[in-house]
Every structure is written in C-alpha cells, then in structure tokens.
Batch of 3 targets.
Target 1
Amino acid sequence: MLQFLHTLKKNDSGATAIEYGLIAALVSVAIIGALTTLGTDLGGIFGDVSTELQDAGEDG
C-alpha cells in the first residue's frame, strides 16, 4: 500500500494533461476573440460596400 501511494505521488502525467488543456483553452479564447472582432469589422465593410453599390445603382 505504501509503495502504491509513493508511486501515485510521483506520477505527474495528469498534471501535464491539465496544463495542455489549459493552454488549449486559452488559445481557443484568443482565437474566438480575434474572429469575433474580425467578423464585426467585416460586417461593417460589407455593409459599406452594399450601401455604395445601392447608391451607384440608383444614380445610373
């Protein structure tokens, strides 16, 4: 029993998996934030282009 507890104490593979999971979560949050900002900016750009095309169609 004592040998089992000693082995369990030295086993850190679970901690490594948790660290990788935390890194993956942080990267995911950063990507989601960047894509959200990019999507908002692109929505504004396409809205401007749409307005300009509609105005050009009414003039011509």
Target 2
Amino acid sequence: MSTIGVTPTNTPTNPGSRVAGAARLHYLTNPWAFVWAPLIAFFGLLAVFVAIAAIAGPGGGTSLGPIMAVFFMMQAYQSVSSVFSLSQALGLTRREYLAGAGAVGLIGAVILSIALTVLGAAEHVTEGFGLGVHLSYSPAVFDRGLAAALATWLITLLGAYIAGLFAATLRQRFGSIAIWVAILGVVVVIAAAAAVIGYLDAWPQVGNWVGRVGPFGVALWAIPLEIIAAAATSLILRRTPA
C-alpha cells in the first residue's frame, strides 16, 4: 500500500503534525468507510424517502441519527482493524494513532451533527418538505432549541464512535470472544438495573425523569460513560499488539 502523502514519520519533533498524519492516514487507507459511505447514507436516505412520499403520499420516514450512529461505530471498528497496524508500521505511537482516530471521529461527528440539525430545522419549518417526511426532526430532540439538538446529535455520534473503538480494541487485544463477553456484561448490568427498578416499583419515577430531562439530558448523562469507555480503550490499546 502506498504511503505517499503520509507525513508522521517525517516530522518526529512535531507531535501535532504526527497526529494530523495519523488522522489523514484514515482517509488515505479507507476513504469509502470514512467519507463516502456516511455521505451516501445521509443524502441517499433523504432522497429515497422524499421520493417515496412524493409518489405514495404524505408521511413516512425514519431517524437518520441512529443510522449515522451505526455508521460511526463501523468507522471506529475499521480504524482499529485496518489503520492501527499500518500506523505502527509507519512509526506512530499508540497515543498518536488514538489521537488521530479521535480527531477523525470528532470531525465527522461535528459535520453530521450540523447536517442533522439543519435538516431537522428545515423539516420542521417546511412540515417535512410539504410531504410529511421527518428524517431528523422530532419534538423530543428539538424542544430545547437548535443548540441542544446539535449537542444531542454530537454526543450520540461520538458515543457510537467510542463504542466502536472500544469493541475493536477488545477484539484486537483479546479476540472476538471478548466482544461477546462485553455484550453479555452490558446485558447483565441492564437486566440487573431493570430488576432493581422493578423491585422498588420505580418505573414510573424513571419514566418521569426521562420525560423531564429529554434526549438532551440523557445525552449529558452519557458523557461520563463515554469518558470511561475512551479511557479504557486507551489503556487496552497500550498493550495491544499491532
């Protein structure tokens, strides 16, 4: 694979340039996963559902946010599986690789968060482009304003990206079985929490709390979990063979 245009190994005294090189490495090695697939999914789904509504009548649509979150999780997984080993062969440190991978996720999340917010606002103003199509807008997400909607999308997309990095790092370090063990652990924790809530008859209070804070509040509460997952990913990656 050609490494023309990759600069990290040429600038050993410039950490910022090396991190930029690590980020650029993602786009050079797999532009489909990191550029074209999310764009095609975003604009493709928009065009398809608008066309369906124009032909079949008003209504219809789905949420682009969760779909984009899945793409971001896949991006992060691709980062570790296809870029990590190459970055080590080019002389990047694990910290530089992870900073570059994080920069790629942040750039993409910011761009798509803005796109989702603008699309949602346009859908609200035009009543789904006059066809009742709502791919991004929902009252729950936008009831606190555009800034809160933007923050909600950004935190959600970054959370998906961090989850993908964590899962791929587990697989790289311990094998595929580690992912299933992690999934099982999450399921057990959720089941235990649900059992405790049910035992305390606290489901109405939980429902009221979720309704009160809304998606924006839930996203804010997810930030500490994302920080923990990012720190765990960094610790595991330090001991992961290239």
Target 3
Amino acid sequence: MGIFGGFEWVIVIFVVFLLFGAKRIPKMAKGIGQAIKEFRNARSNEEDEFKIDKQE
C-alpha cells in the first residue's frame, strides 16, 4: 500500500493550485525537470570518472 491513494492525490493537487496558482505551476515543473536533468548528468559524470579511476 502506497503513501497516497487516488483521493489523497486529488487533495494534494488542489492544495498546490490554491497555494501557487495555475500560472506558476508550469514554471515550477520546468524548474524541477531541469534540476532532475542536471542531477542525472552530474551522477553520470561521476560514474564515468569512477570507472576511469578504477581502470587505472
């Protein structure tokens, strides 16, 4: 069983709309997406460096 069910997600989304407004949510989602992309790139670079260090 997960933390949130279907009805709980509806409430969470409703509260987010109330707090931030519909205009700011796409900007926030874009920022979160960019942060996740940068995190994945940094993790990939670290893994590549670790593999190179390990081979030497």
